[in-house]
Write a structure and sequence with these properties.
371 residues, alpha/beta, 16 strands, 27% helix
């Protein structure tokens, strides 16, 4: 029964996708006399936590009830009061937790408060599932750098565009909709300036249930971006960040700084390009916990080479393009030896009609990422 109720709590937690960043996704269920009397989830950043909402939504007094929660109740005053103290105050008798909170401000302190007040605590129910839905939070809270997802789409023979550069659309509509769900989940979308010049994308999110736009980040070492680009003019609550270097065109820099909702940052130069490691550290300090890379082959290679990618998502369409000049998802100079290749693990596959999606995680012990 513990797993049954925790599955419900995990399902509730997913209702907060795209709304709680950089906070975690958390769901809570209250059970009394064998029935659910209250449910809640963390709905938005800065809002009440899942436990608070579950208690508030309870249909009867929660005294003596069991709380199922996907993450350890907090023990510190932040934007909201400590949930552990509320649980004690409301006299719940038992708390079942999936995972302890990696945040140093909590990290077992919430559980300690409960146990010191004679509340039974069970830890580890559906732990792996709870870690999976909060992989972004776990990476960000530990390293203060964004969780990075590299997404690309290609034909079965490994092409991301035809020999003439045509790339819309390689994958089907169902696959493309899922990409918008990924955008809804991430705090930011990262592309290179060549993608902006070639495709003139809006980089907004279009999903059925009021999707959230991500912050748009353009990597542009010399400010080649056209000032009439759609990404600079769209009406969106989220800003566009342009990462450039001292090589930037000064007149264009001045013009961009005068535009609304546009922020330009100057990064150090690394191999004649934007220093991506500096950029990701800067993003982390700005509270950006996740980045979806939708770049071309050159940018894809650069983020892999710098060891910034955590997860790779590749869509494969049942098409063959051929052409020796057609690009593959990862370009650049490539790795010269097989032993230097970026290694992947935990492979999962799913289909979107005839398209295949492969999801895998980067092995951080890959030789090419050492140091």
């Amino acid at each position: 029964m513990d797993e049954l109720y925790m599955k419900r709590a995990l399902a509730l937690a997913l209702n907060g996708v795209g709304k709680t960043n950089p906070n975690p996704l958390v769901g809570a269920v209250i059970v009394k006399n064998g029935k659910i009397i209250g449910e809640g989830y963390h709905e938005y950043y800065g809002g009440p936590h899942a436990e608070v909402n579950a208690i508030k939504n309870a249909t009867e007094n929660v005294e003596g009830a069991t709380l199922y929660v996907t993450l350890e109740p907090c023990s510190h005053y932040g934007k909201t009061p400590p949930c552990a103290e509320l649980i004690v105050k409301e006299k719940l008798s038992k708390v079942v937790v999936s995972i302890t909170d990696p945040n140093p401000k909590v990290a077992g302190k919430g559980i300690k408060i409960l146990q010191e007040n004679n509340i039974e605590v069970v830890i580890g129910v559906l732990e792996s599932e709870a870690k999976k839905i909060n992989e972004i939070f776990f990476k960000y809270i530990k390293e203060k750098r964004p969780f990075c997802i590299l997404k690309s789409a290609m034909t079965m023979d490994g092409k991301i565009a035809s020999s003439t550069g045509e790339s819309k659309w390689i994958t089907n509509e169902k696959s493309r909709y899922y990409v918008h769900e990924l955008r809804n989940m991430a705090s930011a979308i990262l592309v290179g300036v060549n993608t902006v010049i070639k495709d003139d994308p809006s980089l907004t999110t279009r999903v059925t249930n009021e999707g959230n736009d991500a912050i748009r980040i353009i990597v542009d070492s010399s400010l080649k971006i056209p000032l009439n680009s759609t990404v600079l003019k769209i009406n969106s609550p989220k800003k566009t960040i342009i990462a450039t270097t001292e090589k930037a065109d000064k007149n264009k820099l001045e013009a961009l700084n005068e535009m609304e909702n546009i922020q330009v940052i100057i990064t150090p130069i690394k191999e004649s390009k934007v220093d991506l490691i500096y950029l990701f550290c800067w993003l982390g300090n700005e509270g950006i916990d996740s980045v979806l890379v939708e770049g071309g082959s050159e940018l894809n290679f650069s983020v892999l080479k710098e060891g910034l990618v955590d997860k790779v998502i590749i869509f494969i369409a049942p098409k063959i393009l051929g052409g020796k000049n057609s690009k593959s998802p990862v370009g650049g100079n490539g790795f010269e030896k097989l032993k230097d290749a970026v290694m992947l693990k935990d492979i999962n596959m799913r289909t979107f009609n005839d398209d295949i999606m492969i999801e895998a995680y980067v092995r951080k012990d890959s030789i090419c990422l050492q140091g």
